[in-house]
Amino acid sequence: MAGARGALVGWGVRDRELSGVPVPHYGNRAGEFCYRLIRMVRVVLVDDQELMRVGLRMVLDAQEDVEVVAEADDGAAAVERARELAPDVVLMDVRMPGMDGVRATELIVGEELAKVLVMTTFDLDDYALSALRAGASGFLLKDTPPADLVSAVRSVDEGDAVVSPSVTRRLLDRFIGTGETKLRDDSVLESLTGREREVLVNMARGLSNGEIAERLYLSEATVKTHIGRILAKLELRDRVQAVVLAYETGLIRPGTE
């Protein structure tokens, strides 16, 4: 979802929202005015704890390409902000009074208002898993390092799904158990090439695109191309669904490397 606003930035120095009047900066080698346009990732923060929202805002507002456009303290307010502002990403707590993050995710994703990235204090609780099933594009713990949080927001904005590698295996263990019985017929994978299967296996192990590229001796761009083809062939929405399918079909099993 393309952001509606941007910021004029000269050599990495944040200026202000694009207001229709270019604001030049000195800084190029010839001493002339210059500027560049950066598309902003517009974010709505949703958490019932004000202190948490303040901390998240500080991290995100420090980025030149991320803009916090609104905050909400429950799911109902989050849906209202999403309808009003059409943000790119909603960073959503899942446990809140009133409408929780699961129901809010269902509404926001169902109406295609924004992508949702859920966060929780509790490692892989039922709320977080339900939010992923409801269409959230990713899951992070609230103690995720700031750099990883920012990277996740950008990745979700770009259409990728984010599940922290440190919790991917536990996520799948909770989703489908650790038994040997397949939940889906592996014939759905027949359309994949050998290389695409390799990429899918490594996605299911929680590797990032860069790590997959290094392991398979490919460029990161090639990995992204393979992932796009995997999603298209299997008619999947995002990376999370692809990982779940890999486990459900027995392509990879929990507890294996």
List the helices and strands and how they pair.
Layout: E1 6-10, E2 13-17, E3 25-26, E4 33-34, E5 36-39, E6 41-46, H1 50-61, E7 66-72, H2 75-85, E8 89-93, H3 101-110, E9 115-120, H4 126-133, E10 138-141, H5 146-157, E11 162-163, H6 165-176, H7 194-204, H8 209-216, H9 220-234, H10 239-248
Parallel strand pairs: 6-7, 6-8, 8-9, 9-10, 10-11
Antiparallel strand pairs: 1-2, 1-5, 3-4
Helix pairs in contact: 2-3, 3-4, 7-9, 7-10, 8-9
What is the arithmetic mean of pLDDT?
A: 79
Integer count of domains = 2
| Uncertain runs | 1-26
**CATH fold annotation of the largest domain:** Rossmann fold
> Could you give the order of strands across the largest sheet?
7-6-8-9-10-11
In percent terms, what proportion of residues is strand?
Answer: 15-25%
Assign an overall shape: globular
CATH architecture of the largest domain: 3-Layer(aba) Sandwich
- Oligomeric description of these chains: single chain
How large is the radius of gyration? 20 Å
Report how far apart the termini are. 35 Å
CATH-level-4 superfamily name of the largest domain: Response regulator
In total, the number of strands is 11
Give the structural class: alpha/beta
What is the highest CATH level, the class of the largest domain?
Alpha Beta
Please provide the ordered H/E string of secondary-structure elements: EEEEEEHEHEHEHEHEHHHHH
Helix content: 40-55%
Question: Biggest β-sheet, characterized?
Answer: 6 strands, parallel
Q: Helix count, per DSSP? A: 10
Keywords: DNA-binding, Phosphoprotein, Transcription, Transcription regulation
Domain HTH luxR-type: 185-250
Protein name: Two component transcriptional regulator, LuxR family
Modified residues (4-aspartylphosphate): 93
